Known about the structure:
By secondary structure, the protein is of the alpha+beta class. Strand 28 and strand 29 form a beta hairpin.
Amino acid sequence: MKRLLGCLVVVYSLSAGWSLAVDQAAIVDSSKEWLSHGRDYREHRFSPLAAIDRDNVGQLDLAWSFKFDTARGMEATPLVHDGVLYVSTGWSHVYALDARSGAQLWHYNAEVDKAHLIKTCCGPNNRGVALWQPEDGPLQVYVGALDGRLISLDAATGEQLWSVQTTPTDGNYSITGAPRVVKGLVIIGNGGAELGVRGYVSAYDARTGEQRWRFYTVPGDRNKAQENDALTRALDTWSGDYWYQQGGGGGTVWDALVYDPELDLLYIGTGNGSPWNREIRSPGGGDNLYLSSIVALKPDTGEYVWHYQTTPADNWDYTATQHLILAELELDGQRRKVIMQAPKNGFFYVLDRLSGELLSADAFSRITWASHVDMATGRPVETDYADYQKNGAGVIWPAPFGAHNWQPMSFSERSGLVYIPVQHIPGFFSAKEKETWQVGRWNVGIDLNENRDPRSWVAAKATVDALIYGELVAWDPIQRQRAWAVRHKSPSNGGILSTAGDLVFQGTQEGVFAAYDAFNGERLWEYISDSAVLAGPISYELDGEQYVAVAQGSGGAVMLAIGNVLKHNRVNQNKLLVFKLGASGSTQRVSESQSGLASLVALGHKAEHDEQTIEQGGEIYERNCAVCHGISARGNEVIPDLRYMSEQTHAEFVGIVYGGARKHQGMVGFYSTLSLDDTAAVHAYLDAQQQRLPEMLEMSWLQKVEYWVSFWGAKLGERFPWLLNAMRPYMM
């Protein structure tokens, strides 16, 4: 049956005129298709198609949708070639769909062991696949699996052609990023710096899977010869021994990769330090190269060419792995070949992509860790707030979530604007004195318990409402300022597509997929879905019709950590949505969610009322569980809200949390780091949180007063961070 299905797919492909010619020339000029992660090598995420424009976008409608069996974050950018759409999902599944109708052509499951979830930062997500046809082979689809494998599939049948393990299997590595194919080499990085790894990027032969080169982003053991001269030079920027003896140093290349065919340079964005706390990672100081940097390499060999470090001596998880864009800009009367990035740290960078010279760096979001970037030195000027070790903890903008994270931005040469999905989230940094590295656990060197909500749920809601939100920002890289902005209720919103129809498409955390005027930000069209729309949209043309496609599915670090006051009856639907003009009349207008609140369930067992035990359980929870199940146990629609556990789950709690009874679902046991008493304390804390739910259904008059006092106090604290820090002891 499988062989018959493969034959049918081949017949379909031939009838569709499948040329199988996906190579460097095709990726450079793919006007009607979407052949690489950012459409072409420049990664503008701009479609030259203009059939859908500002005048007729109101007629855009759902042409078809495809539902996936997974129910986690959907971060993938689909690829389209000769009438076939290729898309990946969480847990490393890959689908080939008819791009006209949505009919499934084949499905591949990498069969990742779900226990590997503990070695990831932010869920079993996957940001997409790559396409390439080697000279003497079939068209291939490449995907990085969560467990570190790089896999090649036959594009016609979905059959696995080869698989190679790109990461050690006994460490904290994972892969969530999309590969890129450059000159017949598949380029792939990895993640895991929150847990403690040594970052690197590798290149593999597209036909055979043979490794061609590897570039480490941070030095290894200082007592041994380094892999190349660039690492030998970097060694002087590191102090102490922790980084290579335990944490690995970090610097993972978990997302941004871009190739310049004209200059024949590969650019990578590197990640944060491991641990975040630089005084543990590198006691005695140092810039810690090549953390949080843009690095240029020779694509044939992986040889270092130049670097620019956006955040020297990273202390805050300010990665530079965010989307990189190649462009040509008129600056000071001179046409410059540039590379642009809006990384986590909140500054928008424009560099000369041949030399790495800094051309501009300006704040695109709220920043308190640095006042500005010194253009003479290229270095950020840190403020007093930045040194939380010296200050004894404090609130800093942005949080480790970043002012901009993995969601891709877009650049339109027609408007001259870069469209950025911005996150406004402060973070509370409190240093730990030491960190003992552990496999499968976060090793960041700060006390995650200090990010818990205020004791009052009213104050917590007010603070979140006041300080945490998102924006779609149109940034002018020449004028070095915002052109316009649209504010979103929640911080984690979708990647961007801009088009020659002068439209900008973006989804939101609430599930709204909308089109905006590229020049002024006016909302022109919207579609409401039943899960968050976070992935980057694409556009393609078939039979003279333009389509717009985007994946939907809730997930990612922000949605996991910043949950809801109360749970809604909302199921996380993983789908691919595909639109065209005048399709089926199924577009829904934005309205209040029709899914009501979930029913509250009273505890069916005797709860622990010892306040000391409950407080201890809360601290253990925040340090071990909150990154997945939500700060202060405020759950989300991605994984179970632990305040709504059934009585059976309560009865099985120790077996699940301590023993790993649900390891097959990704919930491993914590027996290596928690005791039975610790587990019981966490259970007591969750019982207490569950018993608080009825009081959160409606605010009393006094609580409304408390809400607005807390709200405006937080807003004032946004303007004067010292005030927010002064208020914190009275709220926690």
